[in-house]
């Protein structure tokens, strides 16, 4: 079935059922379909056709969801723009051959048209979406997925669901829809809800973990930092989370003792997934496997995902992986090799389960998104008072170590602002520590692990005011 026709077929089934709740507003399946067809007509009138580039800079609303579906119905190349990009990065994204930029202010005008039949016009080899990720140069790279890739996707095509995916879909009676519709993970698990016939719940008050109980949520996705904050809250303020039947945790490695705690405090509902923007989801650990003691693995490969470990590095191939980095052949050549994605993560396969052992790339996951240390180091070192800068990030938090110019003492607030303006808030270090020298590893390279160990055994690092990242993005 062509993408996204499976969703439209699901919305035509049981048409009076609520598809989206937004506060007190309830949108039925028929109403969502009609809204999608009106916005598609408005986009067509604005010049959108097959192959057009359409950027989405919207909040999470029923209209925004309909706009994504409408653009795909027209065969457009959809660019989701998530919060957190700097002005320079936004200029890079929005200046890339777009035909329409959709904002919340434009949606009412787009929807103010007559209903038209939703007729899919895409071609399998055309690009359906660009998923932007941080780049090693500081400018975001766009992972291009085709319409065929999304038609084959492990969540978007119910004919190909494996057992764990089907179980997650069955738990999606009330799916918590929050964060950003630009997120591929949000889109892909929202698909499970719509295809299952569930209701996507958009909360007006987003406070974790309270929102799960208040809205009687049955399934949610979760990044690791937010999960940790939830667990800290639940220790002192237990909640009845019995409505929850599934929670997918993804975005970064999950410490085994915290995974065990999540199963105990939230319930035996945790799914742990590993993947990348380039590959999509690769592996999954189910609640039953976690309960059986599989705490140190990111799980078995999805049914149609292939994983190989070559010289310690993880390589992957799936029907839904990116075709290439959009208009970036040099980066593509480094990552896509003979039809495989070189993840640049390190791991090993044991008894069919993938175990992560490290990251070959110098990258930190912050708020569920990869942030590269190199661009941050270059921005810090570009300050007149800074000689050298090193950035490390265990446990989803960035720490900067700065060697000042002789006789100088840079302003931490000024350095923080410099990074924020150039790279966006997710790249701002939580701490900036001034040091006299950097330890050197046997290879002759700076030993960042030794830097962090020395920092933890020495005086408390200096916090940067306002640099802590929100868990609600």
From TrEMBL:
<feature type="domain" description="AMP-binding enzyme C-terminal">
    <location>
        <begin position="376"/>
        <end position="445"/>
    </location>
</feature>
<feature type="domain" description="AMP-dependent synthetase/ligase">
    <location>
        <begin position="10"/>
        <end position="326"/>
    </location>
</feature>
<feature type="region of interest" description="Disordered">
    <location>
        <begin position="439"/>
        <end position="473"/>
    </location>
</feature>
<dbReference type="InterPro" id="IPR020845">
    <property type="entry name" value="AMP-binding_CS"/>
</dbReference>
<dbReference type="Pfam" id="PF13193">
    <property type="entry name" value="AMP-binding_C"/>
</dbReference>
<dbReference type="InterPro" id="IPR050237">
    <property type="entry name" value="ATP-dep_AMP-bd_enzyme"/>
</dbReference>
<dbReference type="InterPro" id="IPR000873">
    <property type="entry name" value="AMP-dep_synth/lig_dom"/>
</dbReference>
<keyword id="KW-0436">Ligase</keyword>
<dbReference type="InterPro" id="IPR042099">
    <property type="entry name" value="ANL_N_sf"/>
</dbReference>
<feature type="compositionally biased region" description="Polar residues">
    <location>
        <begin position="464"/>
        <end position="473"/>
    </location>
</feature>
<protein>
    <submittedName>
        <fullName>AMP-dependent synthetase and ligase</fullName>
    </submittedName>
</protein>
<feature type="compositionally biased region" description="Basic and acidic residues">
    <location>
        <begin position="445"/>
        <end position="457"/>
    </location>
</feature>
<dbReference type="Pfam" id="PF00501">
    <property type="entry name" value="AMP-binding"/>
</dbReference>
<dbReference type="GO" id="GO:0016874">
    <property type="term" value="F:ligase activity"/>
</dbReference>
<dbReference type="InterPro" id="IPR025110">
    <property type="entry name" value="AMP-bd_C"/>
</dbReference>
<dbReference type="InterPro" id="IPR045851">
    <property type="entry name" value="AMP-bd_C_sf"/>
</dbReference>
